[in-house]
Amino acid sequence: MSPNNAGSMRSLKVGGIAPFTATDYPGKLAAVIFVQGCPWRCGYCHNPHLQSRTGEGAVPWPQIMQLLERRVGLIDAVVFSGGEATTDSMLGDAIRAVRELGFSIGLHTAGAYPNRLAALLPLLDWVGFDIKAPFDGYHRVTSVGDSWRQAHNSARLILASGIPYEFRTTIHPSLLGEEDILSLAQTLQHMEVRNYALQLFRAQGCADAGLKAVSTAGYPGKALLEQIAAMFAQFTFRSA
């Protein structure tokens, strides 16, 4: 890496790193780099401290690279998450540097920046795509009126890329009723999504007291889960 590249890398604003996980990249042991910044404000977010960006980031990039160099041979992959990792314009440089160490690269994204995502897709080996709601109700989750458009464009890009992926939706009864969940699943089936997961809201890390106060017992119903499971080649339900 040239000195100029090394200098630009330090501007990647990293909020933290998980040096080992067996759940964030399917079938691989991985580290997760949490990038600061997100333009959306989902109430159920379990990393709200990463929504804003600080001047230098919480963890200097050279420190991240030193840690990853020590993990070579111990883990298989590195996942860039957030926040919304594509918020940071230096993400592509960071991915290239990590690829040079021999790791597979995963990305967790909600698709807020489809143009940036399009440029990143050739560098990725797997994408976890957070699709929030039926497109006509996206603003109820993100608090941003036109967010559905970015998500829709990003979904199309991922499906066209041929890269392995998982589309997944975090569900909470105050935000998505069962009819909303079914509507979204039908839309994804029509888009020819093959791998889909529903994730039940987790209170850990969530800053919204109202959402945490609502019971999720019996939600979603077994019949709905069975109906949705039949719609996809691969379906997963992750309970809290």
Topology of this protein?
Elements: H1 3-9, E1 14-21, E2 30-35, H2 61-71, E3 77-81, H3 91-99, E4 104-109, H4 114-120, E5 126-130, H5 139-142, H6 147-161, E6 165-171, H7 178-190, E7 195-200, H8 209-212, H9 222-229, E8 234-238
Parallel strand pairs: 2-3, 3-4, 4-5, 5-6, 6-7, 7-8
Antiparallel strand pairs: 1-2
Helix pairs in contact: 4-6
Task: Summarize the structure in words.
- It is a single chain.
- The protein has an 8-stranded mixed sheet.
- With 240 residues, the protein is α/β, with parallel strands linked by helices.
- The radius of gyration is 18 Å and the shape is globular.
- α4 runs parallel beside α6.
- The longest helix is centred in the middle third of the chain and has 15 residues, at 147-161.
- The protein contains 9 helices and 8 strands.
- The protein has helices at residues 3-9, 61-71, 91-99, 114-120, 139-142, 147-161, 178-190, 209-212, 222-229, and strands spanning 14-21, 30-35, 77-81, 104-109, 126-130, 165-171, 195-200, 234-238.
User: H/E series, N to C?
Assistant: HEEHEHEHEHHEHEHHE
Spatial gap, N to C terminus: 43 Å
Q: How large is the share of residues in beta strands?
A: 15-25%
Q: Share of helix among residues?
A: 25-40%
Q: Biggest β-sheet: count, sense, barrel?
A: 8 strands, mixed
Chain-averaged pLDDT: 93
Q: Supply the number of helical segments.
A: 9
Structural class: alpha/beta
Strand order of the largest sheet: 1-2-3-4-5-6-7-8
> What is the tally of beta strands?
8
Give the low-confidence spans: 1-10
Radius of gyration: 18 Å
- Global morphology: globular
